[in-house]
Amino acid sequence: MYAMELNHITKGYLDGDRENLVLNDISLKVNKGEFIAILGPSGSGKSTLLTIAGMLLSADKGNIIINGSSMDEMKQKEWTKIRREKLGFIFQNHQLLPYLTAEEQLILAADMKPFSSKEERNSTVDELLAELGISSCKKKYPKQMSGGEKQRVAIARAFINRPEVILADEPTASLDGTRGRQIAEMIRQEVKHRNTAAIMVTHDERILDLVDRVYRLEQGKLLLSAL
Ligand SMILES: Nc1ncnc2c1ncn2[C@@H]1O[C@H](COP(=O)(O)OP(=O)(O)OP(=O)(O)O)[C@@H](O)[C@H]1O
Ligand SMILES: [Mg+2]
């Protein structure tokens, strides 16, 4: 069973009276334990595809299957639950809430489900902050952190519920080469240790050695690329 299957995803935007077909019948299967990258020119639809995979946007056509469950059969109301329990989203611009500390950002995202108690949840928060090297940020607000620290809090937040699929939209874009590579390494480690799956959109060719497969999105089509 695949961690995530995208089947025949089609999405267009209305541009005046013409349709701009951004995703033209795209299919993608990602195994558990697999880390894949999507490259492509600006405007090629990478964020659109990831947002659809993350169930933050609906496709015009096509279906998503997460760990064997077809999203076709889900009501839009149930999407929030699926997002919280099965998916971890890392946005390019981290999107932390300004009025919460690092610790509070993680607690807010934590669905109580994977934890048997508040104590267990709290110790997972501490563990994740330590793993990502940001224990010192626990009580800090975003405005007190550096760009790289904020990005790592966003990653910790995406990992807290032990998602089955991690979706990362240019997670390394705002970081220098070394920090960017560390972020990609952290995603890889999570994927390999927990046997989850990750799809990462990136422009950074220097981190492609960390992923298992590379695709290119061009003119509405997703093509497998040589590493
Ligand atoms: N809400 C929207 N309404 C209309 N057009 C949109 C909308 N969102 C995206 N588009 C268009 O869809 C195309 C794909 O956008 P998308 O953001 O997915 O590209 P991208 O590959 O992520 O680009 P980048 O590398 O610059 O982030 C673009 O031409 C964009 O203008
Ligand atoms: Mg984008």
Structure explained in plain terms:
The protein has one domain: P-loop containing nucleotide triphosphate hydrolases (Rossmann fold), CATH 3.40.50. The two termini are 25 Å apart. It is α/β, with parallel strands linked by helices. The chain is built from six helices and ten strands, in the order E-E-E-H-E-E-H-E-H-H-H-E-H-E-E-E. 32% of the residues lie in helices and 28% in strands. Magnesium ion binds next to helix 1.
Write the layout of secondary structure elements.
Elements: E1 4-15, E2 18-30, E3 35-39, H1 46-53, E4 61-66, E5 69-70, H2 76-86, E6 87-90, H3 102-109, H4 118-131, H5 147-159, E7 165-169, H6 177-194, E8 197-201, E9 213-218, E10 221-225
Parallel strand pairs: 3-8, 3-9, 6-7, 7-8
Antiparallel strand pairs: 1-2, 1-4, 4-5, 9-10
At CATH level 3, the topology is Rossmann fold
Q: Give the name of the CATH architecture.
A: 3-Layer(aba) Sandwich
Count of DSSP E strands? 10
Mind telling me the CATH superfamily name?
A: P-loop containing nucleotide triphosphate hydrolases
Roughly what percent helix? Answer: 25-40%
* Poorly predicted residue ranges: none
- Written as H for each helix and E for each strand, in order along the chain, the element string is EEEHEEHEHHHEHEEE
Outline of the structure:
With 227 residues, this protein is α/β, with parallel strands linked by helices. It has helices at residues 46-53, 76-86, 102-109, 118-131, 147-159, 177-194, and strands spanning 4-15, 18-30, 35-39, 61-66, 69-70, 87-90, 165-169, 197-201, 213-218, 221-225.
